[in-house]
Amino acid sequence: MAESVARGDFQGSTCPHDCPSTCALEIEVKRDAEGVGRGIGAVRGAAANSYTAGVICAKVSRYAERVHHPDRLLHPLLRTGPKGSGQFREIGWEEALDRTAEAFAERTARHGSETVWPYYYAGTMGLVQRDGIHRLRHVMRYSGQKNTICTALCESGWQAGVGHFGGPDPREMAEADLIVIWGGNPVATQVNVMTHVSRARKQRGAKLVVVDPYRTGTAAAADLHLAVRPGTDAALACAVMHIAFRDGHADRDYIARMSDAPAGLEAHLAARGPDWASAVTGLPVAVIEEFARLYNTTERAYIRCGYGFSRSRNGAAALHAVTCLPTVTGKWRHIGGGAFWSNRAIYHWDKTLIEGLDARDPGIRMLDQSRIGAVLTGDRRDLGEGPPVTALLIQNTNPVVVAPASGKVRRGFLRDDLFTCVHEQFLTDTAKYADIVLPATMFVEHDDLYQSGGHTHIQLGPKIVEPPGACRSNHEVLQGLAARLGAEHPGFRMTAREIADATLRASGWPGWEEVAAARWVDAAPDFAAAHYERGFGHPDGRFRFAPDWAAIGTDHAGMPALPDQMDAIDGADAEHPFRMVTAPARQFLNTTFTETPGARKREQCPAAMLHPKDAARLGVTEGGMVRLGNARGEVVVTARLAEGQQEGVVIVESIWPNGDFAGGIGINLLTSDDPGPPKGGAVFHDTAVWVQAEAAMERLAAE
Ligand SMILES: Nc1nc2c(c(=O)[nH]1)N[C@H]1C(S)=C(S)[C@@H](COP(=O)(O)OP(=O)(O)OC[C@H]3O[C@@H](n4cnc5c(=O)[nH]c(N)nc54)[C@H](O)[C@@H]3O)O[C@H]1N2
Ligand SMILES: Nc1nc2c(c(=O)[nH]1)N[C@H]1C(S)=C(S)[C@@H](COP(=O)(O)OP(=O)(O)OC[C@H]3O[C@@H](n4cnc5c(=O)[nH]c(N)nc54)[C@H](O)[C@@H]3O)O[C@H]1N2
Ligand code: SF4
Ligand SMILES: [Mo]
Asked: Most distant CA pair in the chain: distance in Å?
């Protein structure tokens, strides 16, 4: 920074990243001689927030590295070389927005408005800056987006049984005697869970159980780690329920009062005991019995569902089976008891203004976010009778790396007749395929409003420093395009802060100033609501052991009538003997932070974690190179030997940019874009692969 740093002070903010913790932050602002915020220094968690409790992850504590990164985009760019080459020249905002609007108008005239696909995700979770793109979409009648890359399978599985997106307050984990972290890795992905778990362990001697195919940081901290084979969680859940009925721990009164109590549940589970589950999950019978005894005999047992076990073709069915556990055993009744995935329904937002819902035509087609490769390569299953996609506006996401089946995605982005505008903070792999790149602000440089999936607070993220260079916020870009395209909506004439303020009030919350003064709103529902004492989310108030899958999605054929192991995964076979899981890396957040030196240094390089016996069989040693492949392609990564996972399981922590792989394309080359039933969802952890030692000569050639 050129400006002299006159004084530093800490301002309240909110972490904008796609993480259930949504931490309340305090950020040191560096000011110039005039007192204008020009940069940031230290970032810390707000001690006064009862969920954040003063703790944040290492990657965000180093955020000054990201805000002041020398590679930040500072000016709009026009492509001058081939798509993907990364060759651009600087242009002004007027020209950049004019060219983009002209391309959208010209293609709309030729193909109809659905040819434009405003494509977005959760680079920022701020409600105004993330979701404002829908306002342009709806007013202009551009194609809709079905969000399937992250939450769809969890949503389906949770909806199936519980029927409402809420549950026991996550702070109650501190009052539990047993916490089960099922298919999540909070030490890496939402560190604050561990704060509340630690309190329970210290104050109550609580036990921690982790269900995860490999020894994550969270599993390493557990009293009991159940290293299941990927995609077999429903079998484990069924066995625990079988044992509950067998040993007299089923709460028959609760089942009769609070569930659909389908005839035959007990008989159905009778055939799904520990021997059967052992064969499916690969866990010893004794371990299943131990977990079942611990769970079934502890009243205050809190199951924290992660996303990981939903990212399979049977993921929705698996999540449903796990939510059946606290219902069979009546745990929802107790403080610190029940299950939790996300609090998204407790905020009751009116998003009309943000999203332009009053302009929405439900007849406009919806395109599947995770199938962007299929969409861009003209797959009729995705396009329907509609026009090809010939123009993209991309905000907040990096699909060239994060979407599955990335070979197909790349082919789509290379299309000559496709116009792509990417609004970004860095020249990501996706931005490299753009015709126009627009420089974006970071969260400290614009105003926004946040909800929290993993706790109960509404929080603000005010603009506290001036943007560098010519960076503009997502909202400002949408305003600029709307003006040129003739898109009329009150939201385009308001500032981000005015929209946030109006949205708070329309949703029944205090306005911006009042929330700012109080720092946050705790939107926690009362105990009875959070524990579903007045009923679950279905019209009859009953939890469903027998879900109505057809009401959730059209692709419901073959889904289990009662909680069950669904035989649908990409099973290992003779040709593909390994099951691959592409779990989140601790220092990255999807591809965010892959550009910061602190995170890169700690993560080192893309790697495949192998069981030592598999490694010996393959002739691979620690630090050697291995090639992983299937019908979609092959990638080469470094081998790491790892105890604590079953043989035949390979873990590739993700998501490294394409350039970090020898072949120039990353791990999602191998993952499938098959939609998980019943309403879609990416199946990132459900991939059968072969693994080979990489011959020394080829390794040299790759380097
Ligand atoms: N450091 C870091 N933090 C992140 C992210 C990141 O990339 N890095 N991503 C953010 C985002 S977008 C999200 S959605 C959340 C996700 O947060 P999580 O829910 O924690 O992450 P998942 O990818 O869903 O995977 C979690 C765990 O599930 C395990 N898993 C995979 N398959 C199975 C299975 O079949 N059964 C079981 N029991 N476990 C399985 C994986 O091994 C992994 O350890 O984290 C957010 N926070
Ligand atoms: N193999 C594998 N693939 C996965 C996963 C996995 O576990 N394994 N996880 C999946 C999951 S859960 C998810 S959610 C997706 C996430 O995938 P993405 O949503 O694409 O997440 P990121 O890669 O972090 O990319 C977000 C981008 O938004 C940009 N950004 C941040 N803030 C702003 C802003 O205010 N304005 C603009 N214009 N841009 C901004 C950042 O610079 C960053 O490049 O990836 C999925 N892909
Ligand atoms: S734990 Fe999650 S919400 Fe908290 S600072 Fe880190 S990324 Fe942000
Ligand atoms: Mo996600």
From this structure: 75
Confidence band of 385 (pLDDT split at 50, 70, 90)? very high
Q: Could you tell me the distance, in angstroms and rounded to a whole number, from the CA of residue 591 to the centre of ligand 2?
A: 6
Strands 457-461 and 448-450: antiparallel
Name the CA radius of gyration of the chain, rounded. 25
Q: Phi/psi at 217 (nearest 5 deg)?
A: -60, -35
Measured from the alpha carbon of residue 22, the closest ligand is 3
Domains belonging to the chain, first-starting first, are: 3-67 (2.20.25.90), 77-146+348-442+469-495 (3.40.50.740), 167-341+538-552 (3.40.228.10), 578-702 (2.40.40.20)
Which pTM value belongs to this model? 0.97
Among 74, 395, 396, which residue has the most ligand 2 atoms within 8 Å of its CB, making it the best to mutate? 396
User: Which stretches within 584-691 are classed as H helix?
Assistant: 597-603, 612-618
* Nearest Cα residue to 342 out of 198, 474, 537: 537
- DSSP at 469: T
Q: Would the CB of 568 count as within 6 Å of ligand 2? A: no
Count of C-beta atoms within a 10 Å radius of residue 643? 10
DSSP string, 528-597: HHHTTTT--SSTT--B-SS--HHHH-S--TT--SSS-----S----SS--EEEE-PBPSS-BTTBTTTSH
pLDDT given at position 701? 54
Distance from C-alpha of 452 to C-alpha of 450, rounded to nearest angstrom: 7
> DSSP assignment, residue 440?
B
Q: Is the pLDDT score of 13 beyond 90?
A: yes
State if residue 137 touches ligand 3 by the CB under 6 angstroms criterion: no
Cα 667 to ligand 2 centroid, rounded to whole Å? 15
SS (H, E, C) 29-72: EEECCCCCEEEEEEEEECCCCCCCCCCCCHHHHCCHHHHCCCCC
Task: Find out whether the beta carbon of 119 lies less than 6 Å from any atom of ligand 2.
Answer: no
pLDDT digits (tens, 9 = 90+) for 346-367: 999 999 999 999 999 999 999 9
Task: Say if residues 16 and 126 touch (Cβ distance below 8 Å).
Answer: yes
- Taking only the tens place, the pLDDT of each residue in 580-616 is 999 999 999 999 999 999 999 999 999 999 999 999 9
Q: Is the CB of 590 under 6 A from ligand 2?
A: yes
Q: From residue 331, give the alpha-carbon distance in Å to each of 209, 293, 305.
A: 16, 14, 15
Q: How many CA atoms lie within 13 A of 112 on its CB side?
A: 8
Q: Exposed, middle or buried, 34 (CB in 10 Å: 0-12/13-18/19+)?
A: exposed
Residue 668 beta carbon below 6 angstroms from any ligand 2 atom: yes
- CA 663 – ligand 2 centroid, Å: 22
